[in-house]
Amino acid sequence: MRFISPGKITEAIHATQSVGISALKLNPTAVIESADGRAVAILNRNKPVAYLLPADQYEALLDRLEDYELADIVRARQNEPMVEVDIHK
Questions:
Q1: Domains, the chain, with CATH or none
Q2: Residue 68: is it exposed, middle or buried by C-beta count within 10 angstroms (0-12/13-18/19+)?
């Protein structure tokens, strides 16, 4: 894995490590292992084209996104009239 010098970056990279797509193709297992549980930016011509995340981080990200979406639904409905419900019927 290599770090890209700031002078070569044309877009923001939201990871502390990056790897070229060619290097990823050659040895994806090495990239995953050397990431040490952190996100890796996958670059094509020094531009990020994807991010590689450990499965647990990806799942946590999806859970958090779902929480935000549910919170948006709650906020959108908070001024609607209450509906009485009996779950025993």
A1: 6-77 (3.40.1620.10)
A2: exposed
The position carrying tokens 């952190």 is: 38
pLDDT of residue 5: 58
Tokens representing 34 are 């050397």
Contact residues for 68 (Cβ-Cβ < 8 A; gap 6+): none
Cβ neighbours around 13 below 10 Å, total: 20
Per-residue pLDDT reduced to its tens digit, 21-58 = 999 999 999 999 999 999 999 999 999 999 999 999 99
Tell me the pTM.
0.70
CA distance 25 to 39: 17
